[in-house]
Amino acid sequence: MSFELTIEPLGISVDIEEGQTILDAALRAGIYLPHACCHGVCATCKVDVTDGEVEHNESSSFALMEFERDEGKCLACCATVESDITISAEIEEDPDARAIPVRDFQAVVTRIKSLTPTIKGVWLKLSAGQVFDFQAGQYINLKFDAAIGSRAFSVASSPSEGGEIELNIKIVPGGAATSFVHEQLKVGDEVTFSGPYGRFFVKKSADLPVIFIAGGSGLSSPRSMILDLVEEGFEKPIALIYGQRNFSELYYHEDFKALEARLPNFTYVPVLSDEPGESEWSGARGFAHDAAKAHFDNDFRGHKAYLCGPPAMIEATISTLMQGRLFERDIYTEKFISAADAQQVRSPLFKSI
Length: 353
Ligand SMILES: Cc1cc2nc3c(=O)[nH]c(=O)nc-3n(C[C@H](O)[C@H](O)[C@H](O)COP(=O)(O)OP(=O)(O)OC[C@H]3O[C@@H](n4cnc5c(N)ncnc54)[C@H](O)[C@@H]3O)c2cc1C
What we know:
Blueprint: E1 2-8, E2 12-17, H1 22-28, E3 46-51, E4 54-55, H2 66-70, E5 73-75, E6 80-81, E7 85-88, E8 103-114, E9 119-126, E10 139-143, E11 150-154, E12 164-170, H3 176-183, E13 190-197, E14 210-215, H4 220-231, E15 238-244, H5 253-262, E16 266-272, E17 284-285, H6 288-295, E18 304-309, H7 311-323, E19 331-335, H8 339-342
Parallel strand pairs: 1-7, 14-15, 14-18, 15-16, 16-17, 18-19
Antiparallel strand pairs: 1-2, 3-5, 3-7, 4-6, 8-9, 8-13, 9-12, 10-11, 10-13
Helix pairs in contact: 6-7
Bound molecules: flavin-adenine dinucleotide (FAD).
């Protein structure tokens, strides 16, 4: 059974199925509603219901308090509808955003490669005739079995390779989805995913030098964004500060070194936090945010910064950038939050996913 969802102030009406969340219906119609955790706890997707009835489902009582429910608010990531409905949302125009509707895709695993002891590269070839259109930096929701559900993974390859996408998946000890990928997924397996999701992409219209600061498997989106910028001949300086624990975890290291040698406007600063002192590593040591501070002499003015990785790394890096006089409006983040992390999310202060 389907209903009509009207989104104000756009005045656009789209179909919404019984059991489908408001957010999902909007994204599949190519309409971006602000959201972040997608688990009903961060409140980024709070909207006003001006007409019709919603079911709040698993929206947390902390993120959506009782009096707000009474006032007609809901969390679009959890709320489903039982009638035609009208919502009013704060929708920011972003000149760099392309309205690409979220779709479901089928693909076959064509290659799996250990990029590091903990990160696997997984290549997915789309079914014949399908092309996955996305903006470099966006992510997909890869579906697993019913017990696991789906998980977000950023696309690591360039949008120009639309018929095949690469994911870089780090194993989380005890993690349901990543253990499956590392231990059971094999070449030839069929998978389904939906996407593209997220607003983490380069603000090309700003035409400013860009800094990417990544940690762990957080290299995926910056890699896609850098490949895309290079392909289109972006001329402003591009810096990649990439933090890993040790040398064996540094992946695509040779590729980025080669890119740095080839392109005068690209700088690559790998930094290791846990490399044995006696090793041959002669590069930077410590954390990514400290390496960024040293590289830019604590002055980040005039840049756009894109941070991607675990929440703790992102928090530390934001403080460093702001101390180095980069404004909040020039910092964009993609936190690899899990359902459990999301419980700790209060309200995202920064422009992010
Ligand atoms: C927008 C977005 C993009 C993402 N892109 C990538 C990507 O490109 N590559 C990638 O590897 N992951 C990425 N992630 C993380 C990914 O979606 C999963 O959360 C993560 O891989 C863990 O899934 P799991 O099922 O193995 O663990 P779960 O079974 O969901 O969690 C098991 C336990 O591990 C903890 N945990 C979950 N994630 C992490 C983590 N990252 N570090 C430490 N502990 C954790 C949980 O809190 C929980 O206690 C992304 C997340 C988001 C939100």
